[in-house]
Amino acid sequence: MEAKENCKSxxxxxxxxxxxxxSYAKTSTFQKTVIHFTKELxxxxxxxxxxxxxxxxxxxxxxxxxxxxxxxxxxxxxxxVESIIEAVELKLxxxxxxxxxxxxxxxxxxxxxxxxxxxxxSLPSNRRYYAAGVPGSFYGRLFPEASLHFIHxxxxxxxxxxxxxxxxxxxxxxxxxxxxxxxxxxDEVIEAYKAQxxxxxxxxxxxxxxxxxxxxxxxxxxxxxANGIHPSEAGVNTCFDLIGSxxxxxxxxxxxxxxxxxxxxxxxxxxxxxxxxxxxxxNGCFSVERxxxxxxxxxxxxxxxxxxIITYPMRSALTGLIKQEIGEEIVDELFDLYLKxxxxxxxxxxxxSGKSLSFLVVLxxxxxx
Length: 369
Fold this sequence. Notes:
Layout: H1 2-5, H2 24-27, H3 29-49, E1 63-69, H4 76-94, E2 103-110, H5 116-121, E3 130-135, E4 148-154, H6 187-211, E5 212-225, H7 235-252, H8 258-263, H9 273-283, E6 286-293, H10 308-325, H11 331-344, H12 347-350, E7 356-365
Parallel strand pairs: 1-2, 1-4, 2-3, 4-5
Antiparallel strand pairs: 5-7, 6-7
């Protein structure tokens, strides 16, 4: 029965593959910066709190299993994994257990449509771990029970498992007619997105609680918005709202039908730290060891007219979704329009330093629950 859980239906829109200007590998520099920034924070938590037989009176596991959920195609996943391995080694060294450093197994997870070929072709030649790919949605079971010591995921948990049903139902008060995102929509639409997020997080944490050993760690870097603000106030949500504005322009030009826009919604939800913490407490299987809003990272060398810093990552992230739901033929024109609209919005209002944020979460699996 358990093995069937990871086959649950979930929307799958992989990041752009390859090494071109719109590829995830080339446009994920912000994610890379944040992962690097959190390295010391994560290592500190591991050295002080990781508790899986790492003591003079108990033996650590001979195989230490790490999973990266939503790994995409690299290179960021490789940096994150290497940092985790370094942290575990530091922990053992601090306990005088250098001779008991385990072998490391890394399980790279993403949807089956992810470009695993590129991922494995670009694996570091000097890696210190055995690598395997695990396809499937992380909103269901992916791994055997109590088989993982460490789970990592960065910039992936804002993707919902699906578009909320109510927002595409013409008879529903939450029908999102004329819009493709929730932040500037009616309260009913916002609540539908929030309810889908809550259900997804319930499924996510329930699955992970079965897979992580007692004392095991989960570390997440989550893109979200500040506590207590309306979703429309966050610049990160403006980025997605502008996609809808571009599609409406294309409707007016006769390029896209109105019905197409009415049926298209972006399955992304920007949570708050409070919402995420509430989900963890409701699940009850993990303790929150650290939750920290990360300092807003200024992008070096970004001039006032360098709007590609917004446009290229959005194209990398959303092209798969747009191709599947609308069609590949509109992608170039859509993002040409998008670039112009970003130019019309003051860049600093999108790259705002207070209402959009990234936050680090470190969770520890409680004793049998």
